[in-house]
Specification:
The complex is a heterotrimer. Chain A is mainly α. Chain A has helices at 2-26, 29-55, 62-79, 84-106, 111-132, 161-184, 186-196, 198-203, 208-234, 244-257, 262-281, 286-302, 307-322. In chain C, the strands form five sheets. In chain C, strands 11-10-12-13-14-17-18 form a seven-stranded mixed β-sheet, with helices on both faces. Chain C has helices spanning 8-25, 60-73, 94-107, 121-131, 159-174, 187-203, 220-230, 241-253, 273-277, 299-311, 320-337, 346-354, 407-415; strands at 44-50, 52-53, 56-57, 83-89, 112-114, 117-118, 136-138, 140-141, 152-154, 178-184, 207-213, 234-238, 261-264, 285-289, 357-359, 368-369, 382-388, 391-399. Classes of the chains: A mainly alpha, B mainly alpha, C alpha/beta.
Amino acid sequence: MQLLTHKSTLVGLVALLLAVILLPMFAGALWVKVLTSAAIFALAASGVSLVYAQLGLINLAQIALIGIGGWIALRLNYGTALPVTLIVLGSGILTGLIGALFALPALRMRGLYLALVTLMVAALFQIMFNAFQFPNGGEGFWGVAQKSAASIRRPAFAETDEAYFRYVLIALGLSFALIGLHKAGRPGRAWAMTRQSEANAMAAGINVTFYKLWAFALSGLLAGIAGALLAGALGQLDARSFLAGEGILLFALAVVGGAFSWLGAVFAGLLYKLLPALFNDWGLSADIALIIFGGALMHAIMTAPHGIAGQILGAFNKEKSDD
Amino acid sequence: MLKVYGLFLVSGLAVGSLYALAGIGLVILRRSTGFLNFAYGALAAAAAMVAWQVADWGAWGPIAWLSALLTGVILSVAYGRIIAPSLAWREPAVKAVATLGYMLILLGVMGLLWDDELRKLSLPTDKMATTLLGVRVTVTRMIALGLSVAAVIAMILYLDRSRMGLNMRALADDRDHAALLGIPIVRVETIAWCISGALAGVTGLLFGSLVRLEPTVITFMVIPATAAAIVGRLNSLPMTLLGGLLIGVVEAMLTLYKPLAPLRAMTPFVIAGLVILWMQRGTNLTFATKD
Amino acid sequence: MKTTLLFAATLMAGAAFMAEPAKADGHAPVCGLNTGTAATGDPIKVGGINGNAPPGDFSGGTDGAAAYFDCVNANGGVNGRPIEYIVENDQWNPELAGQVATKLVKDENVVALVGNGSVVEMAVNAPLYASEDVMVMASGCAISECYESSHIVSTNQGPLPSGIGALKFAIEELGATNAACIGFNIPNNGGWACDWMNEYMESKGLQGTSILMDPTAVDLNSVYLQALAEGVDTILLMLPAGPAIGLLKVAEEQGGRDLFKWVSPTPLYEPGVGEILGEYWSENLYINIELNEFDSEGADNQNWAKVVEAYGQDGDRQDTFSQSGYISAKFFVDALLKLDPATIDRPTVTKAIQGIVGAESDLLCKPYYVGEADRHMPNHAGRMVVFKDGGFELVRDCYDIDTNYLDPIRAQEAALGLK
């Protein structure tokens, strides 16, 4: 088991290095932008996956937390002169706290009711984002001026799209490492026991409340970082990017990609952003992508609970054992 | 001033009755099959679009409305017969998530079939109107309200009085025991999918006529409808009706209070959230129970 | 993904109605060098981005420009070089808008963008256009970035001047004293335009209120009721055609025609609107138009109708944006024709576009110009029509507006010697 994790980590590191060095060199300007988005949403999807795979909980509100992270990042961008990386981290941490806060009343729920609560939260924030809009350099707490938006900073070393893509990839790698550390460590064991039986976990002296909140906070942290990175990538944020329907799609793709490994989150990001962009480039309708997503979700739910990543890793492992 | 309140009350009841109607369709299905059907809005949207298409081909009005009903029933039963059985013994959350897949498929297919132009679904009742509390109310709006009340009464009677209703309640209580008792599960469930699909068809038709005829908009109407169903604890038809109407009226009334006016669309979700918290009251244990 | 107004049939009826005067002339359209032979040289790549998805279709600009470019290519091109026009749709999605602009500007290396129409694209891409020094001759702009950026110049007026034009008419001719501006709650669109609207009302000693609605809002009924609760005497519909029509339908259902004076900027001036609105609104809806009437007799308008008929695609929109796209494309080609075809590249084209000053057309009330400036708004004088018997009737010819917003624009015009 230890070895397998180790190997998966190595593979991940090599893939990340190759992506950081090679992708921006060979992909056109369009694809650098698309892949940046894909990487950002892979980061957010890894949070959805974490809560789903470790605790068996369905979170349809990740899109709202991405929006909150983006909002905080914009507010800090216009209100302070902090370095961008610090803003990204700050947005992540604050969003993580907010995520845990929202999880507090939901702790006693799981299954369908929790899914419904998160859906209500996603719908709530869709309205909030539309009513209050994202800061664009205006005065006051909400920071919205009825005019053109002022500019958003990127890190000094990542001003170009290519450099920013590398910056996002490194953030993605670090986030995956953070999740990996959690899974392999104490929280991972606590989550595993909690998932099997909360009562047993409690009897074993595990602080179930704390570790559940911790999972939501970690997932919120990842969403917040994704939101902040998205703000930098687009140069602005728009309420229409954070509809409740997108939260549903993000969860669906996290399941389709495979919730149990970092590879699954990568697939989720690619499906969410790269596939529609490819279709657009080929002159195909984005609606075809929706049909594929829907079919894949039903397939994953019924027969492939570990998603695409699970099937690929499974095939890979089987070949190994056949040798 | 009274006239203004009347205006908002009537407007709120009209929107609320649509939430209620959709919520009832969700609850009926959920009670007998355990499926919370997130694709419900997509069924309604498909029904409305088919009705528009049939009318656009020049068919006689009633044929177009009937086609909406049939679309709802066919799409609902298709899922109930083909997909649902293989998920029958899974937990409710998994069942619900699977319907999300169906929703995405239907949404995609509708996007392919009907590009995003502005359409209008006209019912003859749109032109007929009476004045109520100083407000002009079209007959279509009154049908929406009347239909949701009638649907609740009819369903309560049906579930209470008929053999099929008894079977449905047995199934809702315990699927395993119902099977042991020899209740024809497939038949009972098919009828539940059928009723729910028919309600989706009617909801879509009314929504397309009263609010907006657009697949995405109608599809995501399932979210506020779910809020109404939550008020009914996914179980009670009268509470769902009341929940839907309450949501509609509060939402409309908030328009009058300027600071909250832009946030009025949050009403369904705030009310549903409060209901869920209320349902959790008294539970002191930190860990979750069965759904 | 072409959008027509309500039913395809409506559009057909509308289009036939609009195209009538143009056919009477009978001559072939006039484009570019007008040689009658197709251009075969090395293509010049030009881009265009429209926004076509609910809640609005802004593809008329690129449709009109595409038809004109096709006509130019069939008539000698730009001194022998054809124009390769690449059009993308941003689908009202900021991410997609950024992606397609990057593709056009960086991957395809277009010399300029012409005919753009969107509520999203310009806000995302204005910095890109400036940093890459590529000019955008937009045609269907509706947000502040279109009029407050160095590298975007739009032929249409957008909601601000057109809305103020409509209000000016409402104040002077209809006696409006208290107006509600109903717009989308998008800061650089509805928020921006309605803010200036209120400022304008105040400057006249009158009252104005903004009612900003969620663009994804489903229930237009409560938006109308909100206006009712405000107690205004005039409603300005600062919305794309679809939602505006929806709101008028709600008002009709509630019998609201006579409770307010109804005015609107250009979006409602569209073929097919007559069929949808019906008799109820006849002589009760006043619309400001940013370009000339669809059936006006001027040479450019007649030529637009012919170009669109001969070179347009099925389902093309024939609206104000189409006129605007056509005339933008014409100004663009005229500017390029002055260049040595061998030297046409992005820097020379940017210079040539910035060199356009005082270009005249019967589609516009005043001469068009670009110049080098940090903002551009060459078109701010319009006309007013009334919706009548399923069509439109001119009620006020060319007039300019008076708002502080135009102060920097007037300074530019003075510097360029335009008045």
